[in-house]
From TrEMBL:
It is found in: Cytoplasm. Residues 4-292 form the PEP-utilising enzyme C-terminal domain. This is Phosphoenolpyruvate-protein phosphotransferase. Transmembrane segments: none annotated. The chain holds residues 245 to 542 of 542 of the full protein. GO terms for molecular function: phosphoenolpyruvate-protein phosphotransferase activity. It comes from Blautia wexlerae.
Length: 298
């Protein structure tokens, strides 16, 4: 069984009828880098960059971030590595961030919201990512987006950062950008958001908790928490259609992407890629390779 699975390491991400739907890896530390290559993932679909910010006494320096991203870019070579900017706050706290206690941290100052009022911290990360882009195939992705105004601010900061690099003659690539769709607001404006970036990536963990209005960590709700809820699945379909209407790729990077009971449904919805924890790459590849989309096309 395990050996059968391991044979899939070198097999392409193709459905029975030959459609390519790439499987990427979600990682949250440098140790997982090797398993991305070991299991033959298309690349990194989600780097949870928080690991460099947590469990420490002060903000990480730009150079420390840069060296990690450079290592990732070099290790992945031609393979794409999507770096998600820091998604701090809520369940990811560090004392030096000085986030005041919030009654409702899940709905609080987290993700991009926090970054947009810690501009120095955010710019250091943007600079580190752009600097590292010269060494491989990086993309950048923003978490917890809920409005176009946030994208206005991000675009202005990217311009400021890249102008600074230009002035100092530091090389970088014009890397692709993406937005995580993980709030119901982002779903409803996904067409507008898709126009502003190169790809969308569905964060189904947060999207389902915000859609169901249920904390995904609350043990009292475990039995009531249905992440196959038709509301969630319809939202996923809406986002895929919105992205495609703007000729943009749409991926799923929440845990739901690894749920092989849904692989066929996601493929039928037209998803372009799935990003899953390294241990799920081969099981998802096996499920994907069994799907036949030709009936549907007819
Ligand atoms: C998600 O919300 O689905 C997601 C991928 O982000 P995280 O799990 O890191 O919040
Ligand atoms: Mg999330």
């Amino acid at each position: 069984e395990r050996e059968e699975l391991l044979k899939l390491r070198e097999k392409p991400d193709l459905t029975r009828d030959g459609k390519r739907v790439e499987i990427y890896a979600n990682i949250g530390n440098m140790d997982d880098l090797n398993s991305v290559l070991y299991y033959g993932a298309a690349g990194i679909g989600l780097l949870r960059s928080e690991f460099q910010y947590l469990g420490r006494e002060n903000y990480p320096r730009e150079n420390e971030l840069f060296h990690a991203y450079k290592k990732i870019a070099e290790t992945m070579g031609d393979r794409l590595a999507v770096i998600r900017t820091a998604d701090l706050g809520a369940d990811k706290q560090a004392a030096y961030l000085n986030i005041p206690d919030e009654t409702n941290p899940i709905m609080g100052n987290r993700g991009i919201r926090l970054c947009l009022d810690r501009k120095k911290m955010f710019k250091a990360q943007l600079r580190a990512i752009f600097r590292a882009s010269a060494y491989g195939n990086l993309a950048i992705m923003f978490p917890m987006i809920s409005s176009e105004e946030e994208m206005d601010e991000i675009e202005a900061m990217i311009e400021e950062v890249t102008n600074g690099l230009d002035e100092r003659g530091i090389p970088y690539k014009n890397i692709r950008t993406g937005i995580m769709i993980e709030t119901p607001a982002a779903v409803m404006i996904s067409r507008e958001l898709a126009r502003r970036v190169d790809f969308l990536s569905l964060g189904t963990n947060d999207l389902s908790q915000y859609t169901l209005a249920m904390d995904r960590q609350n043990p009292l709700l475990r039995k009531k928490y249905n992440d196959h809820h038709p509301a969630v699945l319809r939202m996923i379909k809406m986002v895929i259609d919105a992205g495609h209407a703007e000729n943009k790729r749409v991926c799923i990077c929440g845990e739901l992407a690894a749920d092989t009971a849904l692989t066929e449904e996601f493929l039928k919805m037209g998803v372009d890629c799935l990003s899953v924890v390294p241990a799920c790459i081969l099981p998802v590849r096996r499920a994907l390779r069994q799907v036949d989309l030709s009936d549907m096309r007819r």
